[in-house]
Amino acid sequence: MGKPHVLSITVPALGHVIPLMELSLYLIKHGIKITFVNAESAHNLVVNASATKGDIANSIGLVSIPDGDQPEILKEVIGKINASDRDKITCVLADPGISWAMEAAEEMGIRRAILCPFAATGLVLMSCIPKLIEDGIIGEDGTPTKKQTIQLSPTMPAMETSHFLWVSRTDSEFAKFWLYEYALRCKRSMSLANKMLSNSTYVLEPAAFKTNGEILPIGPLLAASHGTGNLAGNFWTEDSSCLKWLDQQATQSVIYVAFGSATTFDQTQFKEFAMALELCNRPFLWVVRPDFVEKLSDAYPEGFQERVGARGLIISWAPQQKVLEHPSIACFFTHCGWNSAMEALINGVPLLCWPFLSEQMHNHDYICNVWRVGLGFNRDEGGLIAREEIKNKLEELLGSEKYKANALDLKEKLWSSIKEGGSSYNNFMNFVEWLKE
Predict the structure, then answer these.
(1) Pairing of strands 351-353, 33-39
(2) Which CATH architecture has domain 5-231+418-436?
(3) What are the extents of the domains in the chain?
(4) Distance CA 197, CA 216 (A)
(5) What is the DSSP letter of 12?
(6) What are the angstrom distances between the C-alpha of 25 and each of 56, 60, 156?
(7) What's the CATH class of domain 241-399?
(8) Which of 160, 209, 225, 308 lies 20 to 30 Å (CA to CA) from residue 219?
(9) Cβ atoms within 10 Å, residue 184
(10) pLDDT tens digits, residue range 216-256?
(11) Beta carbons within 8 Å of 397's beta carbon, 6+ residues apart
């Protein structure tokens, strides 16, 4: 009999690829063989960005399939592996949004597990969709019937219906459809999975795990915490030169700004944000993707880069885990993606929250109102977050010791959960033993 062989598969979005890749690398260290399946739109990006990282490029079998629902192609991939490899596929480990992979594995008699890349509260919420419809809180299409605050269980934090993961803040009908479709698929996957894993901890969401005890936290799943040293599953080449720049800055002096892989600004908000960074008169490291704003070369305020000079460094993509663990970082402007939040919290970095869509709204609520490690912003009547609002919240965050103290306290608890003997560590090791049965 060969090694346990896990086929990992996820949706082609950076925030989903990274945690599953991190988990896959960690499983390899414990004697599990991994074949990682990406949609074509993500596969080449991952391969190119991983080319210089031997632990990824040499230890995982990377396979691509066409984008979209491809259950028959996935079955073919599994069939070919099982026909030619001594180590046959023994488990399919999937993003919960790929319910068709769970269905294909069930048809083939293969064990199934899901990894939730967002807050476990999101899975609990998705499992409640039929009850939410029955109670008239949402319609059949997932749209809230009115703006209200609810609790999924007596112990869980209150949640605004406008912050449900599938409620789109855009006018895009496709986005509205896909977000709710993704939620329904997650619910389907939960019913098919033998194991449900979460990139979270009991510390962060105790009530969610109490509400559904079958969801097992194994996080935070970070390269730094598990010793791989490199961010796994990245789409773009990191500009590591920023680390030398950070070395030259004072301890806890730098504002780090990064809004993820998909967020965009319009030119008005972009200029307003740039002027806020100038007004703050603090050193900053700002990640600005080429597609972050339309006509990027013309987007900056006139003379901005000359005025801020060496005080500000603007790059297209950062080695975020290494940046956030750097002693010069004071705080993190973030879109509140779950991975970014975990990377900040594991390093005790307080946050300034600028959520855009989906689960980011809920993460914002946890960061600001439950964990109390960050602050959000108020928009003006036109929907703009003004430079004075940005400057004031930054000064409030850095001018009070409580946010940093809360972040350091949470950091200690998170590290305890992933160290040997901790709750996340134990859940992970139990999963490894299950794979080896």
Answers:
(1) unpaired
(2) 3-Layer(aba) Sandwich (3.40)
(3) 5-231+418-436, 241-399
(4) 5
(5) S
(6) 7, 8, 33
(7) alpha beta
(8) 160
(9) 15
(10) 999 999 744 444 445 555 666 788 999 999 999 999 999 99
(11) 331, 350, 352, 374, 375, 403
